[in-house]
């Protein structure tokens, strides 16, 4: 029996798969993948050397089954896989909006967990929220956490906070990439070569994030330390506030939360 089955293997499935294999949590032969198209199956097999399944039901015979399709596909895909799930299988949902109780009703599975990962999982830098269903014992929870930590950090949350976690960690990499792109565009406008601009902007974001995580200082204190009196940074900050950057970020994330609630 395969240890892990991915039902669907697009952007998020591949990111998790890449992290799991790089960390050595299991061998490629321990993983089986299904997808909608043969093209994806061929590409995933060529890149990772994992087994490919001829159907979703076949991938769902694994010990841990990751439902890595879009939320809109969940109901039909679950109808396909539910009959072949083993009674001891751990069913993992990574979709926003699909609650543990909904998943339990649709899959009939005893052991269900919700994860909200993000794509930096691909390089072992994921941030994944975890909500365990009632059917998981301590050993099951440890297995899930080992899986999650193979591609980054895990944070156990009460399920009612999952929509917030979806915005703050699941979707936010897209907004951070947008910020990096915008900063680089400004650099290019002032003559920086494009490649240098992306590298410099990304390194500044990565370094700033590590400062927050590693110093434990409040983000506002770290910001104040960059803003010299009558200096250049405070001028930029003044304009960013005027343009509503802070509010734009908050409202953007709250729109994400609202969408997650409607799924
Ligand atoms: N992307 C993120 O950053 C992110 C973050 C957190 C959570 N998520 C969640 O992760 C899940 C997957 O998102 P994604 O971004 O990876 O989507 P995606 O890139 O569109 O990948 C979806 C995968 O599902 C497969 N698929 C579609 N219909 C299928 C079917 N009927 N049977 C089997 N496989 C099917 C697709 O196969 P083909 O490739 O053959 O079309 C593809 O491999 C979603 O629930 C999403 O909300 C995503």
TrEMBL record:
Gene3D superfamilies for the chain: NAD(P)-binding Rossmann-like Domain (3.40.50.720), ProC C-terminal domain-like (1.10.3730.10)
UniProt key word Cytoplasm: yes
Pathway(s) per entry: Amino-acid biosynthesis; L-proline biosynthesis; L-proline from L-glutamate 5-semialdehyde: step 1/1
Tagged with keyword NADP: yes
EC number, as in UniProt: 1.5.1.2
Biological process (GO), any one: L-proline biosynthetic process
Residue ranges annotated for the Pyrroline-5-carboxylate reductase catalytic N-terminal domain, each copy included: 3-96
Pyrroline-5-carboxylate reductase dimerisation domain: residues covered: 159-263
Pfam families: F420_oxidored (PF03807), P5CR_dimer (PF14748)
Cellular compartment(s): Cytoplasm
SUPFAM superfamilies: 6-phosphogluconate dehydrogenase C-terminal domain-like (SSF48179), NAD(P)-binding Rossmann-fold domains (SSF51735)
One Gene Ontology molecular-function label: pyrroline-5-carboxylate reductase activity
GO CC terms: cytoplasm
Residues annotated to bind NADP(+): 68-71
Binding site for NADPH: 56
Catalytic activity: L-proline + NAD(+) = (S)-1-pyrroline-5-carboxylate + NADH + 2 H(+); L-proline + NADP(+) = (S)-1-pyrroline-5-carboxylate + NADPH + 2 H(+)
Cleaved signal peptide residues: none
Subcellular location, principal: cytoplasm
Keywords: Amino-acid biosynthesis, Cytoplasm, NADP, Oxidoreductase, Proline biosynthesis
UniProt similarity note: Belongs to the pyrroline-5-carboxylate reductase family.
Function: Catalyzes the reduction of 1-pyrroline-5-carboxylate (PCA) to L-proline.
Protein name: Pyrroline-5-carboxylate reductase
Record gene name: proC
């Amino acid at each position: 029996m395969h240890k892990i089955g991915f039902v669907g293997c697009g952007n998020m499935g591949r990111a998790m798969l890449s992290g799991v294999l790089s960390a050595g949590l299991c061998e490629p032969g321990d993983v089986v993948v299904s997808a909608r198209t043969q093209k994806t199956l061929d590409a995933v097999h060529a890149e990772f050397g994992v087994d490919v399944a001829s159907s979703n039901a076949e991938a769902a015979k694994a010990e841990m089954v990751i439902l890595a399709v879009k939320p809109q596909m969940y109901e039909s895909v679950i109808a396909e896989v539910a009959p072949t799930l083993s009674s001891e299988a751990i069913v993992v949902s990574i979709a926003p909006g699909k609650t543990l109780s909904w998943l339990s009703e649709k899959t009939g599975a005893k052991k269900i967990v919700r994860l909200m990962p993000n794509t930096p999982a691909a390089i072992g830098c994921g941030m994944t929220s975890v909500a365990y269903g009632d059917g998981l014992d301590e050993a099951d929870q440890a297995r899930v956490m080992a899986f999650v930590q193979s591609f980054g950090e895990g944070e156990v949350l009460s399920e009612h906070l999952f929509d917030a976690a979806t915005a703050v960690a699941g979707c936010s990499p897209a907004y951070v990439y947008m910020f990096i792109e915008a900063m680089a565009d400004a650099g290019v406008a002032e003559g920086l070569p494009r490649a240098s601009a992306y590298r410099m902007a990304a390194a500044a974001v990565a370094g700033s994030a590590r400062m927050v995580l590693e110093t434990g200082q409040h983000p506002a204190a770290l910001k104040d330390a960059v803003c010299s009196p009558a200096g250049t940074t405070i001028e930029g900050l003044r304009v960013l506030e005027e343009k509503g950057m802070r509010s734009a970020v908050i409202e953007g994330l709250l729109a994400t939360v609202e969408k997650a609630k409607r799924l």
